[in-house]
Design goal:
This protein is of the alpha+beta class and about 170 residues long. It has 5 helices and 6 strands, in the order H-E-E-H-E-H-E-E-H-E-H. The protein has helices at about 1-10, 35-45, 75-85, 115-125, 135-165; strands spanning about 15-20, 25-30, 60-70, 90-95, 100-105, 125-130. The strands form 2 sheets. It has a 4-stranded antiparallel sheet. A two-stranded antiparallel sheet has the order 1-2. A hairpin with a 4-residue loop joins strand 4 and strand 5. The longest helix has about 35 residues, at about 135-165. The protein is elongated and about 75 Å long. The model has no long low-confidence stretch (mean pLDDT about 75).
Length: about 170
Amino acid sequence: QFQQLQQQQLPRVLRACYLPKSQHLLVSVQGASADAAAAAALVCAALPAQWQPQPVDPAALGAALVRVDGMNCQSCGDYITGALPGKAAGLRDVRVRFADCSGWLLFDPHTTDPATLQATMAGLGFTVTPYSEQAQQDHERLEKEKQQEKQKLEEEEEERRRQQQQQ
């Protein structure tokens, strides 16, 4: 439902993630951080009233979007989601998605910071960097190129088999 709202009413919203444990909706907004309060008000206004949306003071609650490389399947994301809270003081909630190699971190900024959480995730065996749209586009482009190369090799192999069968 939020994706529909995003496309129709909130074009500056780049990504969103709901964290059911803490009941927070984290939103990544295009533009300067000074626009965060205005974006939060727009998001809250766009959500159904029964959800009782309220902006959260960024000084009281920190959030970070990171890129997580080294995952082989969603089980890796589930592992991080399960293991990280016990290893990172100040972490309130985490959600990791294998599909787009992203992770959302919700934390107490008085206890920890994104760099410390990223280092803790790296200690679990994953490469973690701050998320950027450009990095995601580069990753998707490289994955597409790998798939195209793989398909080309498979087609060449199939052609070789056909030629061998004809001889």
